[in-house]
Write a structure and sequence with these properties.
single chain, three-stranded antiparallel sheet, 19 helices, disordered N terminus, binds (2R)-2,3-dihydroxypropanoic acid
């Protein structure tokens, strides 16, 4: 097949900066403006001259070009000047793991803007190292619970009082490794590294005080998989009878059958108010008093992989003390993961730390230890066997719950639908263990889903329809940095670490 020029219809870079980033930049000093224009020019040149694609189907490529252009547009339109909202209206603030994923998307066409995303994320880091799940920046009435409900110590409240999966080290590593501007990127990493390290230390101090190697989440929102059936049993604590009346905003943006139920929200808020009463989210106290304390596979797998990347960054910067500290976390984590393996099911499971029981639900995060590189080869084989069975029951991969589970709901948030970021992580992990065919299937399904349904928040695994929010930032970022055949960042399957832990 003939070679096809990439992005033929896109205009070459003119030096003119447009969109919301530009609006923010125009208020900045002239030098900063010039530097940004320079970075952007170099990044765009790289994007548009990345070369030609061989053996490519022309029609498919033009569809992909369309998605790439749309993805860039979504990031630009969700840019609020230094941070990107996940979706207009539905999520009007800076969400932690969304933002870190989105940084990798920005890096494809505007590296400076990508670093800015991470810098803004860390600008409200707590003194103890925590990076909160939400940074509020500007007030908005379109989301509940907003800053007035969280009421963290500052007035007005700048952040929520809990955290979210620690993705930042992953993006920082991709961005640094693939930069077209090594000198500037090194400076960015020098500044960010101690902040990310402090955040990982926080996870161990605040969420694993007994040094088990795996950390706890104290609220389902900390996992990011809010209403996963994995915590149905752990969410049976009593609802606070004094809960103030509240009005959900999510239901004004998205159908109720795609969102958590009222009962679940009552419990989310029971936890929130309980934590606020505890000296405004004092993490040491929270660990003791929370009626919800779970070892979550999503946070722990991401933390493990992030530690691998943080170690890689520490090596680049010659921080030998940090390297040793991180290797300790990795070795300890490998031990900690052992007790999350359910031999009978052939899957990893989340664990309720209060009862000590493994959670019964088999969820997509069961496959994330592959992404962490913490599963043994035998465990990987069992996981692949299970995943292949799941996929016989749905058209598209990977549902967030085993489709054979009676609780499976193909549209309800984390109780069935597909999330592209999880697909990327699982597929990346599968490649590491040599399961390329299954990894390709997941990638191809992901491409088909975005082609079919657009840049939606999540997708129905049975019909392939889009669900939840529209023009969704991290879905756009995944298209740019992962699904696009020639992604500049090419979020590949590089796994680093001092041991491979596979045997
Ligand atoms: C929500 O409101 O749906 C978020 O996931 C909480 O962070």
């Amino acid at each position: 097949m003939a070679k096809i020029a990439r992005y033929p219809s896109l205009l070459p870079f003119t030096g003119k900066v447009d969109g919301p980033t530009a609006r923010a930049a125009s208020a900045a000093p002239a030098k900063q403006d010039k530097d940004h224009a320079l970075w952007r020019e170099k990044s765009l040149r790289r994007l548009f001259t990345i070369g030609h694609i061989e053996h490519e189907n022309e029609l498919e490529q033009s569809t992909r070009d369309h998605i790439v252009r749309e993805s860039m547009e979504v990031l630009r339109s969700n840019d609020r000047g230094g941070y990107t909202v996940p979706a207009e209206g539905l999520y009007p603030f800076q969400w932690n793991w969304d933002s870190a994923i989105v940084a990798a998307g920005w890096a494809v066409f505007d590296e400076l803007r990508a670093w800015k995303e991470l810098e803004t994320l860390f600008s409200d880091q707590w003194k103890d190292g925590m990076v909160a799940s939400i940074n509020f920046h500007k007030f908005s009435k379109t989301y509940f619970p907003g800053p007035e409900i969280w009421g963290t110590p500052e007035n007005p409240s700048k952040t929520s009082g809990i955290s979210q999966p620690p993705v930042a080290a992953l993006s920082a590593r991709f961005m640094y490794e693939h930069t077209a501007h090594p000198v500037e990127a090194k400076q960015k990493i020098e500044d960010l590294f101690p902040k990310i390290l402090a955040w990982h230390r926080w996870w161990y101090k605040a969420r694993d005080p007994n040094n088990t190697g795996v950390v706890a989440i104290l609220h389902p929102w900390e996992s990011g998989m809010d209403n996963s059936p994995a915590w149905d049993e752990s969410m049976t604590f009593p609802i606070d009878p004094t809960l103030p009346p509240y009005e959900r905003q999510d239901l004004t943006h998205v159908n109720a059958n795609m969102r958590p139920t009222k009962d679940t929200y009552d419990r989310y808020l029971t936890l929130l108010y309980r934590f606020k009463r505890e000296n405004f989210y004092d993490p040491d106290k929270l660990y003791e008093i929370s009626p919800f304390r779970v070892t979550d596979l999503c946070v722990n797998s991401i933390l493990f992989r992030a530690n691998r990347d943080l170690r890689w960054l520490a090596l680049q910067l010659g921080k030998t003390d940090a390297v040793a500290e991180i290797e300790g976390w990795l070795d300890n984590g490998f031990e900690g993961f052992k007790k999350l393996w359910d031999e009978e099911a052939g899957l990893f499971k989340c664990q309720d730390q209060i009862t000590g029981k493994l959670e019964d639900a088999a969820i997509s995060a069961a496959f994330l230890p592959l992404f962490a590189g913490v599963a043994t080869r035998e465990q990987a084989a069992r996981l692949v066997e299970n995943l292949s069975t799941w996929l016989k029951h749905v058209k598209y991969s990977v549902p967030s719950l085993d489709p054979q589970d009676p609780r499976f709901e193909q549209l309800r948030y984390w109780r069935g639908p597909i999330w592209l970021i999880i697909n990327w992580m699982i597929s990346n992990g599968l490649r590491h263990y040599g399961y390329d065919e299954l990894a390709d299937r997941i990638r191809n399904d992901s491409i088909e889903l975005t082609n079919k349904a657009g840049l939606r928040e999540y997708f129905d695994p049975v019909t392939g329809d889009g669900a939840g929010g529209t023009k969704f930032s991290w879905t756009a970022a995944m298209c740019l940095a992962w699904l696009d055949r020639n992604a500049v960042i090419a979020i590949g399957h590089k796994m680093s670490g001092h041991k491979d832990y596979l045997n």
